[in-house]
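Worked example

This section walks through a single chain of length 239. The input is the sequence exactly as stored; nothing has been trimmed or padded.
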Amino acid sequence: MGRKWNNIKEKKASKDANTSRIYAKFGREIYVVAKQGEPNPEANQALKVVLERAKTYNVPRAIIDRAIEKAKGGSEETYDELRYEGFGPNGSMIIVDALTNNVNRTASDVRAAFGKNGGNMGVSGSVAYMFDATAVIGIEGKSADEVLEILMEADVDARDILEEEDSVIVYSEPDQFHAVQAALKDAGITEFTVAELTMLAQNDVELTQDSQAQFEKLIDALEDLDDVQQVYHNVDLGE
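Given that input, the structure is written out below as tokens.
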């Protein structure tokens, strides 16, 4: 699959020296998910997923607690969940997920980011059909065979289990996210290098050096937008 999830996470986390942008995005997402359901992660599976993701990015507990307390306090602040689809250089495909309190502003900002960096906005459905919603969970200290045995004993299905550098990465259906984590935790694993619900491209594409530089500039411009939560694409960026 070629994603090298730990490298991707580290690249995102290092874009801002103090990671304040990542923390702000998590704070917004935690608030929205907690407000939509119960503010207790044991009673709100969507919140539990976000908190597991936040843990792998070392989001401070104070930010998590503040977002949950804000949801408990009945804040009237509301956000719309939006998805944009588009194309980068040489037909590369991009999905952009956003949370916003101003739809017009976000649509304008995303369109401008595409237009100024060699991309084009597409219509809904023009790209998403080439991606699969996927749970991605990574651990260290076990081999792929050992992880497979753990999941088989727990009767948990996985799409694939791969060794990527120093980690083992489990790819599964989104509804198996908690089952995979529970099986691994029952086996004594408490730390996860990756815990993501993502959109995984069915086929990666490679770009020329010039096209890849332009593509990375486009991705950076999209990820730098305050309203954008996640950016998914089908380009193999290599190491």
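What to look for: The mean pLDDT is 90.
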